[in-house]
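Re: that chain you flagged

S.,

Sorry for the slow reply, it's been a week of failed gels. I finally had a moment to sit down with the sequence you sent. For the record, here it is as I used it:
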Amino acid sequence: MAALATITCIADAVDGDNVQAADVRRCEAMPRTTGTKVERDEVRHALTRLGATPAAVAVELQRRFGLRPREAYRQAHGWTQDAVAAQLNASSAGSAAYTGARISDYERWPVGGRRPTFPALVALATAYGTTPTALVDLDDLAAMPEAERSLLLRSASTASTETPYSPPLAISGEHGRTIRWNVGDLLDETELIIAVTERTAEFGAWAESSNVGPMTIDDVAATTRRIAIDYLTQSPVPIYARTGLLADRVFRLLQTGHQHPDQTRELYIWAGYLCTLLAWMAGDLGHQAAAESQARTGWMCAEMVGDDTLRAWVLSTMSKVHLWDQRYEDAAAVAARGLAKAPNGTVGVMLACQEADAWAEIGAAEPALEALRRAEDARQRAGSDAVGGLLACGEIRHHNYAGAVLLRIGQPVEAIWHADQALTRAVGDPSAAYGTLAQVRIWAASAHVAANSLDGAVEVLNPVLELPTEQRLDTVARRLREVDRLISSKPTLRASPDARGLQAAIREFCAGSVSRQLPA
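Prediction finished late last night. Pasting the structure tokens below so you have them in one place:
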């Protein structure tokens, strides 16, 4: 009843979309004296022994000690902030986006801390077994953006206080539920990663089917290909959102009926490719656990239809995850496993390059060179790709991998040749991937630094350092840090003002990368 009274008070204080100051003062809560932990635990234990629910305990903690609602619900369960973060991460398919410090920030807002967005309130409400409206008070509502406050109050009038709240990720339409995400309403990329990862993980356990027409499949195929191409040149987060929307559409087609077996097979193939795209993008945004979860769902789709080329692309994604986790031998083994599938298209080139890259990371020159030879053989046999764009290994991407591998194993002259080839082919090619070209320039700069040619390094790196913030991928930032460390290791450069200036520019770039803007 106290929670309902709180919402009534809040609703009375809302005039249209504006919270009136006089009404805020009239509905202000009693002075807050939070008591000691022992006192709060005594109240919780006493009420629990009497059979009270956590919601009733939370109401009493708010009444007796003046706790804010989010803190009251957490303490009603007897959980620490770290425990809540762990539970949210577990329910987000291992995305590992929440921390105890972040939960603390949510509880302190709007007096300090950071605002919990509607998706964050939904996640907390699900964990606590309540509704989002129970986790806010008048101070929260007064400080919220108008659109989010309106959404929250509308949910209060429709959601049952007896039923755990489900995230309103979809809006009913003529053909069923379709997700409508507005990236601008999300606090940061992490909230988006969590939402998409939860959706793909949910689908991974589902194997039903639905009716579709041939035009639907054609549209899914065409849109998937366009997304894969657009990702090479556009900012990653909006493209990730588009991919998540299309993936959800395909998931729901598979979950809501039956169709002819050949149509089912095609839907699973495109669902698998979409999950593979999501996994690759999540890795670029610095979310390796999310990438691994999405790749597992992509593998399930490939297994459902027995498609070796899709299997190979999923394994390519997994090899990338292992590489960035510094599991180099696993990365090489997974890439070799994918190449053994004898897949169609250029994924064979990609897998052989990834195997070479993994061996080069640990200084295994001969296996790396042998893998590069396999990549060249695969290039000679490669046909067209089903998706293309991000899921293709064209000449520029091939030169990028080959040059980076040769540089690591001590062949800088050959490496620079590959850099020149890649950058020459990129001239006048509007579809050339900015991320790939950035990596070419980074390892070319490393070659110049190794030769004590600072001017050459600065010249080749300038276009990378000028990338806009939204295109500063985690993969690019990681490679730039290697250049920074290499400069520090060179006594002849370390004392140079120009070298220190380049290091400062690199560190400023990395501090503003996509991954560094996300909460720890």
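What I noticed first: Confidence is low (pLDDT under 50) at residues 1-32, 159-180, 205-210, 516-520.

Talk soon,
D.
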